[in-house]
Design brief:
Length: about 40
């Protein structure tokens, strides 16, 4: 499932959902890299 996260004030990343973290952030995979950030509300 594709998810979009925010990394800072104006950088967003869209990738494949990896996991949800205890603090509310989520991790997404883009190729071989994993990014962690705040999920975007739809």
């Amino acid at each position: 499932m594709l998810r979009t996260i925010i990394l800072g004030t104006c950088v967003s990343v869209q990738g494949i959902f990896e996991k949800k973290l205890p603090d509310g952030r989520i991790a997404v995979r883009v190729g071989t890299q994993v990014f962690t950030g705040t999920p975007v509300a739809a």
